[in-house]
Write a structure and sequence with these properties.
Order of helices and strands: HEHEHEE
CATH class: Alpha Beta
Strand order of the largest sheet: 1-2-4-3
Distance between the termini: 13 Å
Strand content: 15-25%
Pfam families: CRS1_YhbY
CATH superfamily: YhbY-like
Helix content: 25-40%
Radius of gyration: 13 Å
Largest sheet: 4 strands, mixed
Keywords: RNA-binding
Number of domains: 1
Protein name: RNA-binding protein
CATH architecture: 2-Layer Sandwich
Number of strands: 4
Organism: Pontibacillus litoralis JSM 072002
GO molecular function, one term: RNA binding
Structural class: alpha+beta
Shape: globular
Length: about 100
């Protein structure tokens, strides 16, 4: 689990990022989870946006994505989810 200090640090790092995945009306799919896991291995920190035509609970969507990709939920704010997963090969972010 991430500490409050680590989450604040990651939120600051994620502030300038643009969402690179969108969860639409079809919801979370296995293919989407696999792609997110692959991108997290390269980038470590990503944003995912939930489109307005998705009527699932945003916190449930965040849980599904995080559990599927073995990532941490940094924040769910508005319709945006910030996910973090420490990279094995491309480690760039040093947590406090």
């Amino acid at each position: 689990m991430l500490t409050g200090k680590q989450k604040r640090f990651l939120r600051a790092k994620a502030h300038h990022l643009n969402p690179i995945f969108q969860v639409g009306k079809t919801g979370v799919t296995d293919n989407m989870i696999q792609q997110i896991a692959d991108v997290l291995e390269k980038r470590e920190l990503i944003k995912v946006s939930i489109l307005q035509n998705n009527f699932d609970d945003k916190h449930e969507v965040a849980e599904q994505l995080a559990n599927g990709a073995q990532a941490h939920i940094v924040q769910v704010i508005g319709n945006t989810i910030i996910l973090y997963k420490e990279s094995k090969e491309h480690k760039e972010i040093q947590l406090p």
